[in-house]
Amino acid sequence: MSLKIYNTLTGKVEEFVPLNPPKVLIYTCGVTVYDDSHVGHGRSLIVFDTFRRFLEHLGYEVKFVRNFTDVDDKIINRAKEECTDFMSIANRYIASYYRDMEAIRVRPADVEPRVTEHIQEIIEVIQRLIEKGYAYESDGDVYFSVSSFKDYGKLSKRSPEEMEAGARVEPSEKKRDPLDFALWKASKAGEPAWDSPWGKGRPGWHTECVAMVFKHLGETIDIHGGGLDLVFPHHENEIAQAEAITGRPFARYWMHNGLVTVGGQKMSKSLGNYVTLKEIYTRYHPDVLRLLVLFTHYRSPLDFSWEKMEEAKRAYERLKGAVEDYELLKKLEVVEDRSGGTHPLYDKVKEMEENFFGALSDDFNTPEALSHIFSLVTELGRIKNRAYREGRITSSDLEAYRFASESLHSTLRKIFGLLEDLYHECEVRRVVERELEPGDVRSSELIDLLVEVRAMARREKQYKIADYIRDRLKEIGIELEDTPAGTRWRKV
RNA sequence: GGCGACGUGGCCGAGCGGACUAAGGCGGGGGACUGCAAAUCCCCUUAUCGGCGGUUCGAAUCCGCCCGUCGCCUCCA
């Protein structure tokens, strides 16, 4: 089955053919570390993390690089506000980023380069551009000459003439042309600075990605990804620099995820309408966010709301329940049945897997893939329903359930990064909520005790007492569920 | 102003020329199960796809115009 993905460069869905299979080289633009990451960053991170997992599943040897921009205006400004140096700001938010990624289960990239560790490589890229006549020095700055690169605008589909007409470009006496962009900026007093052939300064934003790609991946990579808002000017400028130097395609496929909006407007720092990842995972299991992201096609806009988080949470609980309920079903009385023949569920599993991977192969259609997941979840529910009615389960139903739920779990975990901590949830949640719930272990024993007492009351048909216990537990966030195999409880 | 995207049931959201009598999720109603709940299942809510006009044997899917929403053009995932 061939993989098809939409390529921003051509504007078409194309068959994905890596340059040197089975290797696949991917680069995505990471975050600028001057503040906590929000849901907008999270979406992009989750999308590409999931896509990478899918490529690995297909048998590709993926080398994945995602950078940190650890020196730029915003970091410097933040440092000034706090009367500290830019490096401690960067380090603080890199640490914060790693906490977030661990919580939302975005795997680290194979290489996570930092700009400040690649100054020499950046300078070399700039020097090569000057040598080839694509860049010029001007009073300690270095600019890329947009008019010297004929393909400029091919990614964002706009021509330099149109942009001039738009006339919203930054004016500067140092630039020969208003469209030219900075590769190197002479540093002002008190700002971080590195020695260069053009004097003390620091790199402009657009060069770092080119230098890092060249160093860690090579001159042509398979996939370059990032948020839709990076298409212009950032990615356009990357292409200009890289292809001016090599004369060869920089990235064969450009993938851009749609933006996260709030009430229809882009989630961003400047609008102040952002929700940090930390807010998300202190209120919800991190899988809920992953599910929310995967419920929308990666190229469509995703309008964030807490209502949607609630919806995703319900869906998440259904998924989780389908996988977990095997533990419950096997506690029921199992009746042997030798009716023979294969259980119909095995075919359903096969069908689900084929449809699931088929959907992902068609421009990474995660919503459709999830629809196939849920059709299997419904099949599992049918078995549960039958078992609950009869108070027992046939051995073939139980075995089929085990097979199907394991297959479901393994697919969700490996590809979507969901339900990774199913059987260790208490521990993982305690890590996440460490400060919030120090006494969790003790209270779980107490809850077990109350559940026991309630069971006794029920046996005596003392329903008022039994219901009182259940209602009071619910008030403190513990929900009880009576099953043919006994009562279980969960936090809500 | 320039360039681009989007508008599908109560809400969200796939589908992008013929198996669409339009996936899936969430919500609401009814039923099965339950001491009552919860979980699970079944049924209903549930669609002619922003509007108008074209192309085609055939359009939610292609083209044109209009209306509406958003993005990029300045740092942004």
Give descriptors for this structure.
single chain; 492 residues; alpha/beta; Rossmann fold; Four Helix Bundle (Hemerythrin (Met), subunit A); 3 domains; 4-stranded parallel sheet; 16 helices; RNA-binding
- Name of the CATH superfamily of the largest domain: HUPs
Helix count? 16
Unreliable stretches covering 5 or more consecutive residues: 424-436
Q: How much β-strand is present in the residues? A: 15-25%
Helix/strand structural class: alpha/beta
CATH topology of the largest domain: Rossmann fold
Helix content: 40-55%
Through-space gap between termini: 41 Å
**CATH architecture grouping of the largest domain:** 3-Layer(aba) Sandwich
Principal-axes geometry comes out as elongated
Number of domains: 3
Overall mean pLDDT stands at 91
- Overall number of strands: 17
Rg (CA only): 27 Å
Q: What is the spatial order of strands in the main beta sheet?
A: 4-3-9-10
The description of the largest β-sheet is: 4 strands, parallel
Tell me the name of the CATH class of the largest domain: Alpha Beta
In short:
The chain has 492 residues and is of the alpha/beta class. It contains 16 helices and 17 strands.
Descriptive overview:
Residues 424-436 have low confidence and may be disordered. The chain has 492 residues and is of the alpha/beta class. The two termini are 41 Å apart. A hairpin with a 4-residue loop joins β1 and β2 (12-15). Strands 4-3-9-10 form a 4-stranded parallel sheet, with helices on one face. It folds into 3 domains: 4-257, HUPs (Rossmann fold), CATH 3.40.50.620; 306-423, Up-down Bundle (Four Helix Bundle (Hemerythrin (Met), subunit A)), CATH 1.20.120; 439-491, no CATH class. The chain has helices at residues 39-57, 73-81, 86-103, 119-131, 160-166, 205-216, 231-246, 277-283, 286-294, 306-329, 344-361, 366-390, 395-416, 425-432, 440-459, 463-475; strands at 4-7, 12-15, 23-28, 61-66, 135-138, 141-144, 181-186, 201-203, 221-227, 251-257, 260-262, 265-266, 302-304, 333-335, 392-394, 478-483, 486-491. It has 16 helices and 17 strands. α6 packs across α7, α9 (286-294) packs across α10 (306-329) and α15 (440-459) packs antiparallel against α16 (463-475). The structure holds one RNA strand of 77 nucleotides.
